[in-house]
Amino acid sequence: MPLKQIETSALARDNYWLKALNEHIAYLRKNSWYYKDQLVWAGPEAIGLEELADIQNFPFTEKDDIASRNEDFLCVPMEDVRDIVTTSGTLGGSVACYLTQQDLNRLGVNEAGSYVLAGCSKADTFQLLTTIDKRFMAGLAYFLGANELGARIIRSGPGALQLQWESIQRFEPTVLVAVPSFIPRLIRYALENGIDPNKTSVKKIICIGEAIRDENLNPNFLANRIAAEWKVQLFSTYASTEMATAFTECEAGNGAHIQPELMFAEVLNDDGNQVKNGESGEVVVTPLGVEGMPVLRFRTGDICHYYDEPCRCGRNTPRLGPIVGRKQQMVKLKGTSLYPNAIIDELNAMQEVSNFVIELHSDENGLDEVIVKAMLRGENAVASVLEKLSGKLRVKPRLILTGNDEINRLKFNENERKPKILIDHR
Q1: What's the total number of domains in the chain?
Q2: pTM passes above 0.90
């Protein structure tokens, strides 16, 4: 079925998903030791989906399931594995994901589709400010995607401000792929060294790993900070290793689109029911066409807003807003439940805060404790920060004044593949 038809026709999309999900479930029953056990409870092999809603009869897959029975998810002989990646371990220890040649090809198709969503083409030159080593899937995916698109690629990697600008000035990339919190540092280096970012070739930045929009899909403080000094288009993305697929914004900036031929997604409330347009819930994904380590109804733990009305770009595919929070990272302070992302957003918007990390701990009574380690500027900064947090969130985390070097040591661990603003010690 042509991709354009799936993107614009809800009936064509749902019919595609119904057929693809039945094929996916049959593949799991035949090849996955884990799902051979799990799908016994879903009935005889002849039972599949008669309609999409029937997917709710099948069990969820949890992160802990993959961690505890990692190799039982592998559906091919180990000699067919071509690449091994691992999760970042945001919510626990990392687990392995085994990719076949077919999976690598699919990864390229996925990210090429993400680039197309962002209005990119083979005429673009991509500068990848992401690591392609350290068993990191995202860096590999963005490289394979640009290659699949037939575009030029500059693998500059993370950090190295001088190298980034040397590459931009010499090779004239039109698109950067980067963690958005790195961009202000890139801008500051340029301005300090007589480089005008707006006179360079860069037109777009694909932002990975961090939000650039708030829950109402408006640019957040970080996005506005970048846009104030660099007139580039910013595109939000959302993905994980287990998904092997990315959600990416189109040029309308109206939420990150699913690629329907590569994934079936649910966004569920606490009762396990699909939320309505504009509501938030947990993202549950079933990546399609994965050969090595496919999963069924994988619970990401991520809470996002869901949108299913047609997009201004003409696509009819479901979209997601940025991550509001992660279920396992919710904290309860003095009777108030909140996600740490809310604290992060507030701190990012405060002029008094120049750098920070957040640590989550459990106190001697087993209650949640939030510690903000921050470098502040200005008179009465401590009182001002605490007052603003209390006014917006109705809670006051513990604030510890810390030097810039110590914060960066916590944030930029050489063994990590991306900066950690939130560190959960619970």
Answers
A1: 2
A2: no
